[in-house]
């Protein structure tokens, strides 16, 4: 009958060396030797060559390298009442050969059984979705519990790795549909966000355009106001110069100058004057301007 790999590993890790024909025991660097004398524990042999008492001492070899325990797949019921197949492995190494041999009957088999029950307890408190999304948290929780529960085993739990958490086929299909719906929802939100950003950009562009037109209108109005002010200042300067000239050159004749200025402006602008004869025209203009015309004589024929 052939042995499984685990049985072969267990046999090699706990192999015995009887001293019947042997005086020296050679312990490999990956092993410790536990010496029993007349069935009683005596000492632990570290790697190297050791003397044995023939027919009295018996050496049991313990592997101290990192080893793996495959936790058989099992059905676990999650907190949301769904079934899931959970498979995991546990990595450990023996740190106390004496405890590994005498404090537990078969530390590998019992470690596997303890890991199964611990996985059921930890995952049973979580929903299926949480269990799939928080595998690292499950690994850490199971590792801490196993380290606490196996203190008397003489082993050190290195790590726990969950290989798979598989829900039933119909549940898996429903979860896939939920993921697709969420992806569509995210895509729709991204599209709406892009449209909003585009509209906001168009709005800012229109605002900038309106502000530009406003600034241009203000500048144009300021320019026109400045031009009007400049013209007004020029006119005022002109009036000032005229007044100064009148005061200087037309002393006591300012009224006559104003009449003359009004008459020139009227004639220049094409003001209509209705009179009867040439003499009346001359008299009207002279009266308006305040200038006395020179009398003329008619020639006698």
What characteristics describe this protein?
alpha+beta; 8 helices
Can you give a write-up of this model?
The protein is α+β, with helices and mostly antiparallel strands and 301 residues long. The chain has 8 helices and 9 strands. The chain folds into 4 domains: 5-63, no CATH class; 67-167, Band 7 domain (Tetrahydropterin Synthase, Chain A); 169-247; 254-289, no CATH class. It is 53% helix and 22% strand. A 4-stranded antiparallel sheet has the order 1-6-3-4. A 3-stranded antiparallel sheet has the order 7-8-9. The termini are far apart.
Widest β-sheet, arrangement of strands: 1-6-3-4
CATH evolutionary superfamily of the largest domain? Band 7 domain
What percentage of residues falls in helices of 4 or more residues? 40-55%
Strand content: 15-25%
Structural class: alpha+beta
Q: Which value, in Å, is the CA radius of gyration?
A: 58 Å
Condensed summary:
The chain has 301 residues and is an alpha+beta fold. Helix content is 53%, strand content 22%.
Topology at a glance:
Layout: H1 5-13, E1 16-18, E2 24-27, E3 31-37, E4 40-45, E5 48-51, E6 57-63, E7 67-77, E8 83-94, H2 97-102, H3 107-123, H4 128-133, H5 135-149, E9 155-166, H6 169-249, H7 254-268, H8 278-289
Antiparallel strand pairs: 1-6, 2-5, 3-4, 3-6, 7-8, 8-9
Helix pairs in contact: 3-5
């Amino acid at each position: 009958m052939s042995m499984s790999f685990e049985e072969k590993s267990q046999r090699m890790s706990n192999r015995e060396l009887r001293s019947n024909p042997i005086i020296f025991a050679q312990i490999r660097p990956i092993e410790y030797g536990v010496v029993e004398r007349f069935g009683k524990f005596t000492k632990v042999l570290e790697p190297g060559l050791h003397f044995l008492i023939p027919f009295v001492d018996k050496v049991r070899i313990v592997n101290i390298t990192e080893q793996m325990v495959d936790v058989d797949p099992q059905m676990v019921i999650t907190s949301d009442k769904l079934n899931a197949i959970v498979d995991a492995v546990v990595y450990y190494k023996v740190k106390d050969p004496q405890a590994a041999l005498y404090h537990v009957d078969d530390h590998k088999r019992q470690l596997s059984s303890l890991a199964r029950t611990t996985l059921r307890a930890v995952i049973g408190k979580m929903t299926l979705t949480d269990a799939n999304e928080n595998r690292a948290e499950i690994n850490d929780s199971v590792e801490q519990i196993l380290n606490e529960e196996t203190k008397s085993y003489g082993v050190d739990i290195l790590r726990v790795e969950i290989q798979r958490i598989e829900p039933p086929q119909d549940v898996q299909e429903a979860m896939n549909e939920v993921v697709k719906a969420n992806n569509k929802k995210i895509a729709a939100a991204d599209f709406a966000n892009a449209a909003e950003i585009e509209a906001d950009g168009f709005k800012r562009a229109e605002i900038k355009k309106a502000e530009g037109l406003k600034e241009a209108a203000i500048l144009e109005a300021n320019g026109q106001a400045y031009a009007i002010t400049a013209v007004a200042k020029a006119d005022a300067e002109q009036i000032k110069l005229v007044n100064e000239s009148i005061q200087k050159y037309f002393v006591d004749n300012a009224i006559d100058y104003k009449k003359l200025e009004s008459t020139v402006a009227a004639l220049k602008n094409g003001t209509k004057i209705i009179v009867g004869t040439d003499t009346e025209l001359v008299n009207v203009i002279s009266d308006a301007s305040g200038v006395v015309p020179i009398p003329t004589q008619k020639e006698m024929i």
